[in-house]
From TrEMBL:
Its main location: secreted. This is Pentraxin family member. Its cofactor is Ca(2+). Binds 2 calcium ions per subunit. The lineage of its organism: Eukaryota, Metazoa, Chordata, Craniata, Vertebrata.
């Protein structure tokens, strides 16, 4: 396990580019099981558009306020018992949507920066995320809105109990680089 505090994964762009015009889904996060290759997926569909996928249900959030050429803080919640899902972007929350209820069981394959079309595989270059990812956490419960706001305002939070960026077991594959994170955390003001 490695502490990736103040580190980022860098996914450089493909120098050959895309040969034919088409809609590109850039995989940010993909969780698959042997039985379900698309258990949980978060992708970008274009500027300000994010697609969330659970089991066989999908919802696309469009026209979200996005920072150009700067960090975007993304948080996705999904309640497996109710199906309620919500996306947070840069401290702003979307309305809740209803996706399917399901339980994720069995051996997991979690891929960052790429969608997997089958368990631990089925990768397409065009689905690769281009950019930097840092500070990824995952919990086995829905994180409260107060905790999300605290995190996005650089306050304290409980690290993920399933994925913890500060104690992560991972393997790097392909053109992915681990670098010092280049973001500057805002100063927290305390009033007496």
């Amino acid at each position: 396990f490695t502490d990736l505090s103040s580190k980022q994964f860098t996914f450089p762009s493909d120098p050959h580019g895309i040969k034919e015009p088409h809609i590109v889904l850039h995989g940010l996060f993909s969780l698959a099981t042997v039985q379900h290759s698309n258990s949980l997926i978060l992708t970008t569909v274009g500027l300000g558009s994010y697609k969330v996928h659970t089991g066989s249900d999908t919802y696309t959030y469009n026209k979200l306020p996005t920072n150009l050429l700067d960090w975007n803080s993304v948080c996705w919640t999904w309640d497996s018992q109710t199906g309620l899902t919500q996306l947070w972007l840069n401290g702003l929350r979307t309305s809740q949507k209803l996706l399917g209820k399901s339980v994720v069981r069995g051996e997991l394959s979690i891929i960052i920066g790429q969608e997997q079309d089958k368990f631990k595989g089925g990768f397409k270059t065009d689905d690769s995320f281009e950019g930097d990812i840092t500070d990824l956490h995952m919990w086995d419960h829905v994180v409260t809105a107060c905790d999300i706001r605290s995190y996005m305002n650089q306050g304290s939070f409980s690290p993920g109990n399933l994925l913890n960026w500060n104690n992560l077991n991972f393997t790097v594959s392909g053109n992915v680089f681990i670098q010092d994170a280049d973001f500057v955390e805002p100063v927290l003001w305390e009033w007496a």
